[in-house]
């Protein structure tokens, strides 16, 4: 009688965690990753580096707010300031992740039927990668799209439509892609970058609202305010050798790094043997997109399917044809 399968333990080549024929591709060998690994490749580090200006601005905002609270309430300013500094660790705290999954990402736990379909596929993907299945939490997103997500330190989500329509092998390719985001550090780096840039973004929005109200001021007062702000901006630009304008280019650079991270996650899935299945999923999505464009064109939308240069530069995902090209090259290199 064969020994029962335990999640995360190596299996013989071509074996499966279950005895049934689940349609998952078999291949010899396995990519080994340390259990509960939280690595960081160049794209993850690049994302963190690009958000350093926002992080520095957030640091200044939180310091000012903490100082003001200390003056008003008598509370030592270092307490709220220090709490914000260490708050990023909460993205790896399981109870906090559950709150993020439910309230920020709109996810839910799988039903028993969904879990019965999802769990064996996830076990196979994790076993190939040498990763403990208990190191991650599986979630469901109610959506009619074929999609999945990796977030924080342990969240792996998949849409209900993907779970209903994809074959086990195709679902394995999608999950292997999301596991690649985790093992290469993309998920936690993205959430940390978002969190530590949040105070600066909120302060920027407040500043824009204040500027919008300048039109209500008398002409003389508005001219004085604009002149002072302009002088301060010129002084800061001179003192920082123009680096103050770097955040204006950050969204484009972050989008470029994000597109590269998607290709890295595709590479991870291909390394686990799921390149053909992931390519099949991408082709399905390409067909769906073309059908949408054809429907929009039939309704008389002249700009249907046309995407501007700025929109393409800000897109966080590479186009389907680029992803298919890289996956096809990976298959050819393995032959």
Describe the structure.
By secondary structure, this protein is mainly alpha-helical. Helix content is 62%, strand content 5%. It has helices at residues 42-50, 52-73, 78-86, 94-104, 112-129, 160-165, 168-183, 186-212, 219-239, 246-271, 275-298, 309-313, 320-334, and strands at 107-108, 137-141, 148-151, 155-159. The chain has a four-stranded mixed β-sheet with strand order 1-2-4-3, with helices on both faces. Helix 7 crosses helix 11. The radius of gyration is 24 Å and the shape is globular. The chain starts with 41 loop residues before the first helix and ends with a helix. 28% of the residues are buried.
Give a brief rundown of this model.
This protein has 335 residues and is mostly helical. The protein has 13 helices and four strands.
Task: Record keyword descriptors for this entry.
5% strand; single chain; 335 residues; mainly alpha; 62% helix; globular
Structure classification? mainly alpha
Global mean pLDDT: 80
Tally the helices.
13
Helix content: 55-70%
Specify the overall morphology. Answer: globular
Q: Report the uncertain regions.
A: 1-20, 28-36
The topology string of helices and strands comes to HHHHEHEEEHHHHHHHH
Radius of gyration: 24 Å
Give the percentage of residues in beta strands: under 5%
Q: Characterize the biggest β-sheet.
A: 4 strands, mixed
Please tally the β strands and state the result: 4
Strand order of the largest sheet: 1-2-4-3
Tell me the layout of helices and strands.
Layout (H helix, E strand, L loop, with lengths): L41 H9 L1 H22 L4 H9 L7 H11 L2 E2 L3 H18 L7 E5 L6 E4 L3 E5 H6 L2 H16 L2 H27 L6 H21 L6 H26 L3 H24 L10 H5 L6 H15 L1
Parallel strand pairs: 2-4
Antiparallel strand pairs: 1-2, 3-4
């Amino acid at each position: 009688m064969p020994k029962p399968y335990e999640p995360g333990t190596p299996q013989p080549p071509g074996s499966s965690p279950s005895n049934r024929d689940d349609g998952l591709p078999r291949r010899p060998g396995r990519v080994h990753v340390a259990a509960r690994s939280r690595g960081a490749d160049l794209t993850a580090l690049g994302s963190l580096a690009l958000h350093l200006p926002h992080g520095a601005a957030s640091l200044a905002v939180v310091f000012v707010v903490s100082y003001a609270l200390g003056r008003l309430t008598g509370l030592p300013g270092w307490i709220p300031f220090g709490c914000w500094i260490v708050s990023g660790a909460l993205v790896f705290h399981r109870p906090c992740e559950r709150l993020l999954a439910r309230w920020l990402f709109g996810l839910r736990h799988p039903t028993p039927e969904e879990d019965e379909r999802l769990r064996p596929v996830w076990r196979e993907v994790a076993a190939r990668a040498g990763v403990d299945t208990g190191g991650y939490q599986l979630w469901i997103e109610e959506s009619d799209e074929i999609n999945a997500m990796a977030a924080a330190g342990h969240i792996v989500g998949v849409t209900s439509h993907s779970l209903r329509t994809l074959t086990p092998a195709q679902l394995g390719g999608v999950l292997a892609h999301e596991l690649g985001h985790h093992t290469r550090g993309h998920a936690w780096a993205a959430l940390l970058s978002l969190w530590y840039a949040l105070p600066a973004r909120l302060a920027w929005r407040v500043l824009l609202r204040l500027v919008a109200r300048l039109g209500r001021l008398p002409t003389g007062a508005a001219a004085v305010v604009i002149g002072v702000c302009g002088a301060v901006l010129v002084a800061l630009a001179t003192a920082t050798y123009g680096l103050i304008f770097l955040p204006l280019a950050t969204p484009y650079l972050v989008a470029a790094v994000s597109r590269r991270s998607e290709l890295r996650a595709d590479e991870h899935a291909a390394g686990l043997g799921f390149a053909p299945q992931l390519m099949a999923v991408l082709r399905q999505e390409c067909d769906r997109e073309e059908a949408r464009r054809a429907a929009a064109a039939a309704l008389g939308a002249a700009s249907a399917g046309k995407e501007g240069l700025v929109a393409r530069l800000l897109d966080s995902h590479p186009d389907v044809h680029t992803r298919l090209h890289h996956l096809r090259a990976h298959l050819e290199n393995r032959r």
